[in-house]
Amino acid sequence: MSTETTAPADAAAKLTDGYHLVVDALKLNDVQTIYGVVGIPITDVARVAQESGVRYIGFRHESDAGHAAAAAGFLTKKPGICLTVSAPGFLNGLVALANATTNCFPMVQISGSSERHIVDLKRGDYEELDQLAAAQPFAKAAYRVNRVEDIGRGIARAIRAAVSGRPGGVYLDIPAAVLGEVIDAEKAAASLHRIVDPAPRHFPAPESVDRAIDLLANAQRPLVVLGKGAAYSQADKEIRAFIEATGLPFLPMSMAKGLLPDDHPQSAAKARSLALRRADVVMLVGARLNWLLGHGEPPQWNPAAQFIQIDIEPTELDSNQPIAAPLVGDIGSVMEALIKRTRPDQVRAQTAWQHELAERSAQNTAKMSQLVDADPHPMQFYGALRAIRHVLHDNPHAFVVNEGANTLDLARNVIDMSVPRHRLDSGTWGVMGIGMGYAIAAAVESGAPVVAIEGDSAFGFSGMELETICRYRLPIVVVVLNNGGVYRGDGINTVSTDPSPTTLTLNARHDRLIEAFGGKGYQVSTPAQLTIALTGALMSGRPALIDCLIDPADGTESGHLTHLNPRGVGEQ
Ligand code: ADP
Ligand code: TZD
What pTM was computed for the model? Predict the structure, then answer.
């Protein structure tokens, strides 16, 4: 550490600096971990953090560090912190900040930046960029600290903005000169403050609650949709109590799986299409009516459906469908109010509706079993997922991270969850590249094992973080469903000798990548081998990667989203 920029050990001097203040302010607000990539001007922030007992996890790319911070925010309900260097490092992290904002995960990206007097006159500085302006459109809020004595205020403001109301990504710009600024230690300490009640509870009005209860009470075919906002809210007990007391069927969105176990008798997940098409009153709990729910439109939905929406963000309501009963508040408080104001037996699921759903669930389960239990050679997605499901069934506390196209769409349906907030996936944007960052955050924040189920293309976006996983000896098993391509591995280029646009290297040895860093690699070609490898890897608690050879001809272009590809000439 350079001696000019840090506080002298000599207490008599009673001086401190921006580096120390950043860490002191984070610590005062209970930040325990920083995810980042070091370089000018923030390397000493990471060093001071370590000295102060704040964990620093160093990544190979800022997107991955940012995704880790975002996942930490989702899992802990406290903003995850990502530390980046100026200009290119900042921009690399920005995709994760934007993704966090889109997914409503609380996160703060703290970035060093170059000299203001050079940047603002565009004189051409090292890593010159107006980062505050660049971050603004992608963040829930963006701030810059211009004086060392404002660091405490800046961090308090960033944390408050990230975690209160609808959570999101916040950008905090700290120029190099501010980090190096020296300040009297007493004055510095007085400039910091600990935020009181960072995400205050938000209660709904009683008449709003009664309006929603009336709608549910008069419904013939009610349905509760649980979204990742419900998972985030950590109101597990209240959600479960209301659903079980009323007997209402529920449908979890992918990251809400496990809030109630997927094998719960009231789960309508296995009759999803029917439930959406037939429900007459739908209660959305922390779930937006965006593309993931077909915007609430027919034919996917009953055109006569009436919606109740529980959300902390009032402007979300009516964004796609009229909301007959808005319930604005935090999910814990709203569920509590619903429980309190619902009279015994006032809300019940009709038996005919329960039977209709149960019958369709049984039919769909039988169809799914045929697919999952088949054993074609070479191995296909379903066979591999059957093996993973089998092992995860015996390890319910393992976190599941999931990205890819077919890998995502099929795993979401095949892999059941029984513990809340244990599934992390591509989310609202359908983004590739979250895999290793999310897996690292889950392992770091929980200490529990993680299984990352990855398409081979998806894995490539953050694959270099295998080194990070090995360096920190994290209990992460990466399972690559390797069919040698983006979506499929049998793409053909009919016009030249170049590989087709969807082609990747066939039979690539992803297992060898982790061996380069001291982890354990496996390559398997049957479900039985996969079961043995995954069981062993989880038992060892060590970093591992299992490369699963999947039939290159298995999979669909864009997975379940084929219809979103615009059709050009000749395809109409
Ligand atoms: P999914 O993709 O699982 O359907 P979304 O990300 O679309 O879920 O929706 C999450 C919603 O949850 C957002 O509209 C967000 O405002 C809301 N939300 C997040 N946290 C809370 C909370 N604590 N209380 C109420 N609503 C919340
Ligand atoms: N880039 C980013 C950041 N996000 C994306 N979603 C894409 C590109 C486009 N894309 C998808 O939507 S899925 C996917 C890409 C590149 C990878 C699909 O191939 P895979 O999965 O090997 O990961 P499957 O299971 O073989 O389909």
Answer: 0.97
